[in-house]
Design a protein that fits this description.
Chains A, B: GO terms for molecular function: methenyltetrahydrofolate cyclohydrolase activity; methylenetetrahydrofolate dehydrogenase (NADP+) activity. Chains A, B: Pathway: One-carbon metabolism; tetrahydrofolate interconversion. 2 copies of one chain form a homodimer. With about 325 residues, chain A is of the alpha/beta class. Helix content of chain A is about 40%, strand content about 15%. In chain A, the strands form 3 sheets. A 6-stranded parallel beta sheet of chain A has the order 1-11-8-7-5-6. Strand 6 (about 230) of chain A pairs antiparallel with strand 6 (about 230) of chain B.
């Protein structure tokens, strides 16, 4: 084993923050071009119901991100007790507004409102949150399976003293499936691979974890990109053996540092989707975020690896902006 | 290699016809019990629009199968030029009819009718064709991707001189995705495994083929049953190596006898979903049906194998009957 001398090796770190910044600059360029050429800019409407602090913060981050790239924000804050009919009427108004190219209804909605019904009222061309057919499948499944998991009170409390640099990722971690859009997150995974020059076609990809919200859809996306995809989960025998055969590893198990360096095939690309809080008394907050991969060990073996935080997380809002831009281009550029 | 002496080995043939017959007998027993205990029997309504010969024949087979197990048939034959509104009104009537527990609208519908719209009008409790959430996801995807492939004129012509024993399977082959329900077909695959005493949990399953209508949904079903699932396809490198690691192989590539004996792990369970017509001048029809697996070679290595025809095919109608029974039980037995 000493012959391979893995300790000398150092994986290329896939810097999600830097890549997201590149994506945003490209979007800003395209928006500027649209504005100069056609006198129009993309518009993104975000509808919030009620006063959930987490929704408000997340939406304000979205608004800021829009402003940075020149996308116009249309924000609608409706009271907690808004009726479903009123909310749907507002969605219809946004559907009809030619300056709005993307509509996003922030989840979760109050209990008296049927989320599925409301989301289905968003016109398909403006459904930036549901751009991908997979999303619709997931949405359709929602009525039958618990798709949205509640945020744990513990992690909510921890939000009180957060480190601003990883704010968004902590939000995403806490909300899990509640308010942030997983499709953008998943698109982010693929974008990180392609921006790092890693081709997917024909490669062996192993996805660790089979959640409806991450593991399954990311598997389908990889399959669409022509990878040979294996899904490994808690009932798999010899998961480490299967992972060790992968050219591309997507870690989405939700288990802190579960995937050890010895699980990784030398030179593999490792995308760590996991975001787990572990106790850390050296931090003011009392914890830190780690991925599903043992980063330090994996660095010595992998060819590429995403850090947590700073990997997939920062790509999420960038992908939302990209979807809004694409939606706008398809109507503005005829 | 001679040491393993595979030529002495003979796989257990999974007899789909016999298993389907067992399932049907069990259904008949349960229907008799419902009738005696509650004075009610399950009812299945089949709606056909127009005079497509293939739809008519398939539906008449369904009707016969219902009669055999004591399920009451409610058949509606609507003219080719029925309006969408009239068709939907009929669906609503069936939704309201307490004697109808399953509603099946035979596809394809004429071009002037929006299939997705009509299918979405079937009340969820009676949607025997869409019992599984996966189906809804597929349905949702339909608007964006071509899900239903047309039957080739060649195979249609060949239907004229068919061998009655494999009639249903030839129909299914010709229609591919047009009129028969793939969900029942897929449920059939899993039922064949469980009836043969083959457990899925923790096993390595390899699905060859990634079609929206068979490969993908069967992968998701296997995953739900806790298999470690790998999907292999035309862009996979070394597919034979991957298949050789599988405890369970689902062949759904649509390539006649593509999977050779040497691809199979000794003792593996092989479910052959492929149904391909190959020229055979020794037959009156001029062709015969073969699977995606080289049956004779695979028999010498596999532990279990389904023949084509006579494997998965016969299970399809049995699973439809089973779904109808389950639907009826949930309303009759309170």
């Amino acid at each position: 084993m000493a012959s391979s001398s893995p300790s000398d090796h150092k994986a290329t770190i896939i810097d999600g923050k830097a890549i997201a910044q590149t994506v945003r600059s490209e979007i800003a360029d395209e928006v500027r071009h649209l504005s100069q050429q056609y006198g129009k800019v993309p518009g993104l409407a975000v509808v919030i119901v009620g006063n959930r602090k987490d929704s408000q913060s997340y939406v304000s981050m979205k608004r800021k991100a829009c402003a940075e790239v020149g996308i116009k924000s249309f924000d609608l804050n409706l009271p907690e007790d808004v009726s479903q009919a009123e909310l749907i009427a507002k969605v219809h108004e946004l559907n009809a507004n030619p300056d709005v190219h993307g509509i996003l209804v922030q989840l979760p909605l109050p209990k008296h409102i049927n989320e599925e019904k409301v989301l289905s009222e968003i016109s398909i061309e403006k459904d930036v949150d549901g751009f991908h057919p997979l999303n619709i499948g997931k949405l359709a499944m929602k009525g039958r399976h618990p798709l949205f998991l509640p945020c744990t009170p513990k992690s909510k409390k921890r939000l009180l003293n957060i480190d601003s640099a990883v704010k968004l990722e902590i939000y995403m971690f806490c909300w899990k499936s509640s308010c942030f859009n997983h499709d953008h997150f998943l698109q982010g995974c693929l974008e990180l691979l392609s921006r790092s020059g890693i081709s997917i076609r024909g490669k062996k990809a192993v996805v660790v974890g089979r959640s409806n919200i991450v593991g399954l859809p990311v598997s389908l996306l990889l399959l669409k990109e022509d990878a040979t995809v294996t899904i490994v989960h808690s009932h798999s025998s010899e998961p480490e053996k299967t992972v060790r055969e992968a050219d591309i590893v997507i870690a989405a198990a939700g288990q802190p540092m579960m995937i050890k360096g010895s699980w990784i095939k030398p030179g593999a690309a490792v995308i760590d989707v996991g975001t787990n809080a572990v106790d850390d008394q050296t931090r003011k907050s009392g914890y830190r975020l780690v991925g599903d991969v043992d980063f330090h060990e994996a660095c010595k073996v992998a060819g590429w690896i995403t850090p947590v935080p700073g990997g997939v997380g920062p790509m999420t809002v960038a992908m939302l902006l990209k979807n809004t831009l694409e939606g706008a281009k398809s109507t503005i550029v005829q």
